[in-house]
Write a structure and sequence with these properties.
Elements (H helix, E strand, L loop, with lengths): L5 H26 L5 H12 L5 E5 L13 E6 L3 H7 L12 E2 L13 E7 L8 H11 E12 L14 H12 L3 H26 L9 H14 L11 H14 L4 E8 L3 E8 L2
Parallel strand pairs: 1-2, 1-4, 2-3, 4-5
Antiparallel strand pairs: 5-7, 6-7
């Protein structure tokens, strides 16, 4: 019987993987965990999260961040495990059971300056007010605490073709939310839902091997109401690259008057990662 030379596999696999990611299959590879993604996250986590520290991981779902020895995370999610099982049947076998059911974008039930770390992987892109969400996460960190974030790279997932979100857009969302201008925010969020229906939803259907039938008027209206009023975090409101994530976090540092510092911005094939340290 012929055996496959490991050298041959070593040469062919990276090209095949690059081709699949370029063809928009990054999300599929991510789910199959063949992108070395866990390794990249683990490396950063072990470098930047202190052994023995305690914090939160929001929306771990099926991919809790590996933590250094003695570190402990309280798992926060908006949904209970049974709902997660129905919403994400693809991830159902390996779900993390949340310790705390809460709105992890606001964290109102968590005391200020109480956490050594906050981890949020593939959650920030679901937030309507991105800068406000980052401020909420900083608020519960102790001075010296670590914010660990990962977001999908738009061009390498089902958002390919959507424009990158600019800092001007993030700042306007933040100011409108602070001003309580819900009507203006609703208009902006409607634009995100329309982008999702035009670009992301057909790509998700293709990834799942389903054909995409554009919704008729009634179904389209039902989906818009669902995404605007009932489960706004079910879609990606904003789209990132490694560079745009770095720019957003530098804007955050300015917005909070230098109370945090960007320690690291990194990327694997399909996601951008960052470490932000709260300073005071
Ligand atoms: C796309 S999954 C991320 C899964 C995983 N962390 C990863 O890296 O792939 C988003 C997770 O965040 C949760 N989530 C969404 N909105 C939330 C909110 N407002 N508060 C808490 N959890 C939320 C979802 O239920 C889900 O478990």
């Amino acid at each position: 019987m012929n055996s496959v030379s490991p050298g041959l596999v070593g040469r062919i696999w990276p090209r095949l993987r690059r081709g699949m990611v370029d063809a928009g299959l990054g999300e599929l590879l991510l789910r199959l965990n063949v992108l070395g993604l866990v390794e990249t996250r683990r490396k950063l986590a072990f470098q930047h999260i202190a052994p023995g520290s305690c914090g939160l991981e929001i929306g771990a779902l099926h991919a809790p961040l590996p933590l250094p020895p003695g570190a402990h995370a309280c798992y926060v999610d908006k949904h209970c495990v049974d709902t997660l099982r129905t919403l994400r049947a693809d991830a159902a076998t390996t779900l993390v059971i949340p310790d705390l059911l809460a709105d992890g974008l606001r964290l109102h039930c968590i005391a200020a300056e109480s956490q050594d770390f906050v981890i949020a992987n593939h959650l920030l892109e679901h937030a309507q007010d991105t800068l406000g969400t980052l401020c909420n996460w900083l608020h519960v960190l102790r001075p010296g605490g670590t914010l660990f974030i990962a977001v999908p790279i738009g061009a390498r997932c089902f958002d390919r073709g959507r424009p990158l979100t600019t800092n001007e857009h993030f700042l306007a969302d933040y100011e409108l939310t602070l001003a309580g201008d819900t009507a203006a925010m609703r208009q902006r969020n409607l634009a995100h839902v329309e982008e999702h229906l035009a670009i992301s939803a057909p790509a998700i259907a293709a990834l799942q091997g389903q054909s995409w039938v554009p919704p008729g008027d009634g179904e389209r209206q039902r989906l818009i109401t669902h995404f605007l009023d009932h489960n706004p975090e079910q879609i990606h409101h904003h789209v990132f690259s490694r560079t745009s994530l770095g720019e957003l976090l530098h804007l955050l540092c300015r917005v909070v008057g230098g109370a945090c510092r960007v320690e690291r911005v990194a990327a694997s094939r399909v996601e951008a990662l960052a470490i932000v340290r709260r300073l005071r």
